[in-house]
Amino acid sequence: TELLHQHDEAKKVIDSLVSSAPKDLYEKVKYYNDVLAERVAYDMTGYQAGEAKRSPYDALVEGRSVCTGYAETFFNLCYYSGISCAVSDCVSQYSENGVPDHKVSLVNLDGRWKEVDVTWNDAENNVRYDYFMVDLDDTWQKHINGV
Prior knowledge:
The chain is α+β, with helices and mostly antiparallel strands. It contains 7 helices and 8 strands, in the order ααβααβαβββαβββα.
């Protein structure tokens, strides 16, 4: 069916990116951030119409997505590289009434969880690092690790 086809197409791109990534874990995470920021355009038209693209297929094959697609694609790249990772809902500055309205990725490098927000690192014609490897405070570390 169509969903299986989309999964297979996205997985081919994921496998290609994973195999071409640097060996160093930090550089690998940076590479994934950069590749997604360069390959994917934020799907503002779809978002405004309530029909936003949001899957790894949309991001990698069609080249358009909202935050869900960025975060889930980044997660897949990390996962298939053996990097501890997660996707988290969060409240952005645009949220109404504190309702979670954004997704970010979390990676664990050297025992510390870091936030990577590829969506906000995608600055149209270049890559930013304002939201790259942001250290989560000790309260968040304990919460994530279940301590």
